[in-house]
Amino acid sequence: MFKSYVDNEQFNLQINRFLNDFYQEDERANQDLQGIIPRLKDAESWYEAWLDYAVMREERQDYDLASVYYQAAEFYVTPSDPNKEKMYHKYRETFYKGFRNFDYESYQIPYEDSYLPAVKLVTPGARKTLLVFAGYDAYMEEILKMMNFLRGIDYHIIVFDGPGQGTALKNGLKFIPNWEKPVAAVIDYFKLDRVSVLGASWGGYFAMRAAAFEKRIDKVIAFNIFYCGLDALKMRMPDDVWNKLSSLLAANDADQINDMFYSMMASNIDLNWKITKGMENTGETTPFGLLKNFEKHTMAGLGPLINQDVLLLAGEEDQYVPIGRLPQIQQELCNAASITTKVFTRETGGEQHCQAGHRHLAFNEMKKFL
């Protein structure tokens, strides 16, 4: 169940994302939250509260919870702060100490002058392969944890960090729109003939983009739908502000756009995170540069090129993706072999971004589709 813990909408999403799908009945987590929640006031207190409990749980060898708390602690830390790198390493270290859900194999897939980190979850007797990747800010370890919801399907599962994600980003690979390139690298590396793909959050766009140009893909799962990068900035922004920004963007007025964003970021922790994280992912150094970069991340023109079976998942109250994009996506997928759609509402559960708090509902639809 999605729970509202504090007044900050994004804080609530992240708490549900990190904890509720896995630890709703866990007395350890529920007890910890009673101490953590009252401390969450701003980015600094967020970091300190989660870190304190991460250290405590690691000392008690509760590595699963320690990993979750280190990831939460890292979330709002700026890239220039050395604590961000420390939290990331502690997150991964404790994750693998506590990950016992699958037999797995780790790989470093050559890519450009670096590599894509990947983990293959081995399903005995499986005959097919599912490639899974995240989007804007999740790491492959978080996705690996979610794969427990897919246990028992007739697929080996390969989860990887692509350019702009996790260790691939740490090694210098920046966020790109043409996701068919890393997908092809993974397919080639494992010498696969056919794969299905599952993209989470911004990865919903990546999955569509990959399927448009990589025809070794047979099934596409958008978890959730994600039409374009600018939508994530437009959501929760007043119409008059967005209309002004759109005009300035069309006129390439970098100075005014930068001034507007820096002013808004100073008092908006959510927007500040979106822009700061985006610049880390892409290597852009200004909000204007980031917006021009995001313009390249769009499904516009891709729909007719997608001829695979497609599963579209959408949350009616998604705070990053407008539900109004769904009929547009359905219409543009005019050559898809099939389109399966599931909209989650507050009544059904799963109304939030990527069904946070009710993740199992989304994965039940995926299992039926696959």
From TrEMBL:
Extent of the signal sequence: none
Cross-referenced Gene3D superfamilies: alpha/beta hydrolase
Keywords: Hydrolase
GO molecular function: hydrolase activity
Pfam families assigned to the protein according to its UniProt record, in alphabetical order: Abhydrolase_1
Record domain AB hydrolase-1: where: 144-336
Lineage top rank: taxon: Bacteria
Protein name: Alpha/beta hydrolase
Source organism of this protein record: Paenibacillus tyrfis
Lineage, highest ranks first: Bacteria, Bacillati, Bacillota, Bacilli, Bacillales
